[in-house]
Amino acid sequence: MHIQIKGLFALRRFFLLITAALLISFAFFAWSTEETMGEETRMPTKPRFSLDEMRGFALRKSLSTDYKPSYYTKSATSFDRMLVERSSSFNISSTDVLVFVHIQKTAGTSFEKFLVRHLSIDRPCECTQKRKRCVCRRPGRNNNQTWLFSRYSTGWVCGLHADYTELAVSACVDTVLEKKEGSGNRRRYFYTSFLRDPITRYISEYRHVSRGATWMASRHMCNGRPPTPVELPLCFDPRVGWEGVSLAEFLSCPFNLAANRMTRMLADLTLVDCYDTTKMDRKKRDAIMLESAKANLRSLSFYGLKERMDDSQWMFERLFGLRFTKRLADWNKSKSNDTVVTPDIMKKIKEANALDIELYAYALELFDERMERMKREGLPVIVPETTLPSASHFIDDSPSEDQSKRALPMNEEEEEEDEDRYEDSERYN
């Protein structure tokens, strides 16, 4: 009898063990099934690739010969598309928007003023005396949409001297226009810019800063936020400014954004953690920024060169099918030629702008290549049926005047200076 009871207990333990094993197996099967079948509905606990690997992917993509636009350039029209696809030609009467990336001291102020003052179009921009912003509407009496996104048309709505990261990567341009004009239009963006010899550009910026400019109102937005004071310290006391700074002191500040400005303003800074320089060694960061700037330069619809204003005007007019009423080279002025630079200082300037020097050399080659391609294509200048003597209408909004919107002469003698502050007249409203 004792042996039978003992056997029953053993059999019971056996069945309990079997049941427990089955339960464990079922639980493991359910867990593994959830892991394999629920990938589409559950967020992974960590990215598949490391941050360095993802940066490597971005770098390899930007190094590719046939640049494939990323998500933020899908609605942008490149030079290649404009030249090859006639359907990609700029149409001022449609939903196309010309966007200008204004890099400091590259003749951008002159070019932007030409766009609003000296462009022969059916519906000229309306400019008001003593106001810096003009209204540039599309042709058509009832069309209130803008065809130009620039400092003198929409104003600094994406930030003072907003760069490519702020304008395109963050989609600020599209966001602003959708808020202002509605989201029903499928706009095509034609990004443009101007470049300049890096050494003379740097010296010109120094002279501008020594006269009192700071560009402190710039936002430098990247990945949804501005840089922290730790990421981007100031080279001067903001209560005092940097007026009268020597070239040696200007050059010695490691946080001076004048160095390699063209590369930084054309690159996608999200690829290098924006202004946080602690997460990547400098050599790798510089390589990614330079290749990103080159890729984005290739994706621009047009870029001009300050040293070749006539060629730049020729290219712009034929590429966009528009015509200026004046010669751009006659308007542009420069103040950097009288700066005395010692050989030692010149060496340091070249070292500080090594990326810009390489980018500009690339830009020169690409510019010549584009010129030759356009000459082979034989693109004509499209002259509007109604050619106006002036590209802009100047009006007087003075309350003392009885006449509303009286035509006024333009002030052709004003100095081509690049102010570094916001003004109410530059708001897009």
From TrEMBL:
It catalyses: alpha-D-glucosaminyl-[heparan sulfate](n) + 3'-phosphoadenylyl sulfate = 6-sulfo-alpha-D-glucosaminyl-[heparan sulfate](n) + adenosine 3',5'-bisphosphate + H(+). 6-O-sulfation enzyme which catalyzes the transfer of sulfate from 3'-phosphoadenosine 5'-phosphosulfate (PAPS) to position 6 of the N-sulfoglucosamine residue (GlcNS) of heparan sulfate. Belongs to the sulfotransferase 6 family. GO terms for cellular component: membrane. Coiled coil: none annotated. Residues 411-423 have a biased composition (Acidic residues). It holds the Pfam family Sulfotransfer_2. Residues 390-429 are annotated as: Disordered. This is Heparan-sulfate 6-O-sulfotransferase. The lineage of its organism: Eukaryota, Metazoa, Ecdysozoa, Nematoda, Chromadorea. One of its GO terms (molecular function) is heparan sulfate 6-sulfotransferase activity. It is a single-pass type II membrane protein. It is found in: Membrane. InterPro entries: Heparan_SO4-6-sulfoTrfase, P-loop_NTPase, Sulfotransferase. It comes from Pristionchus pacificus. Its EC number is 2.8.2.-. It is an enzyme of class 2 (transferase).
